[in-house]
Amino acid sequence: MLGLRLLLLKLLSLAFILYYVAASFRKMSLTKQRKVDKECRVFQHSWSVAYLFTEVNAIPACLVCSKQVSVVNKYNIQRHYETHHADRYLSLQGQPRRGKVKELIADLKKQKSVFTSNRDISAAALMASYLIANGIALASKPCCEGEFVKTCILKAAEIVCSEKLKLLLILA
């Protein structure tokens, strides 16, 4: 009988330990894990000269190869620079390095402006076509009358290339 009580006591203590361990695991799984991208890390502008990086849409991007680093911290940016570009740009120090950074940033802005200027041109062309269609609908005239075509062209030129409108008025 005594042996049975000892066995029962050991089983109860083992069950209590298992319950305690399971409860602690449940608590661990319920705690929120740390999210690195939510830590409000900020790009330091000194990294531009030191590691040839800049910030594009709140994400650090390499000025040389345009790769983006997912987490904004010094170690990741430094590691990218040292593994990919240090051998080529380590000799540049001081003013020549700052000049190279300015040159790379200007190249990046030039690349971005190609896309924005195309978007602006196509938006202006769309607006001009809407105005011409509106003019045709309001006038109820065919597109072969000279004066009507002239007014449509002037409306389109005013939107698409307003800086050359004076030249077009001289020709008309």
How does this model look, in words?
- With 172 residues, the protein is mostly helical.
- Among the domains are: 1-31; 116-172.
- 68% of the residues lie in helices and 5% in strands.
- It has seven helices and two strands, in the order ααββααααα.
- α5 (95-139) runs antiparallel to α6.
- The longest helix is centred in the last third of the chain and has 45 residues, at 95-139.
- It is elongated.
SS summary, helix count? 7
The helix-strand sequence is HHEEHHHHH
Mean pLDDT: 76
Helix content: 55-70%
Low-confidence stretches: none
**What's the total number of strands?**
2
Distance N terminus to C terminus?
118 Å
- Amount of beta strand: under 5%
Q: Tell me the Rg in angstroms.
A: 34 Å
The shape is elongated
* Strand neighbour order, sheet with most strands: 1-2
Write a short abstract of this structure.
The protein has helices spanning 2-30, 46-51, 74-84, 86-89, 95-139, 146-160, 165-171; strands at residues 53-56, 59-62.
Keywords:
single chain; 172 residues; mainly alpha; two-stranded antiparallel ribbon; 7 helices; elongated
Topology (elements, then pairings):
Layout: H1 2-30, H2 46-51, E1 53-56, E2 59-62, H3 74-84, H4 86-89, H5 95-139, H6 146-160, H7 165-171
Antiparallel strand pairs: 1-2
Helix pairs in contact: 5-6
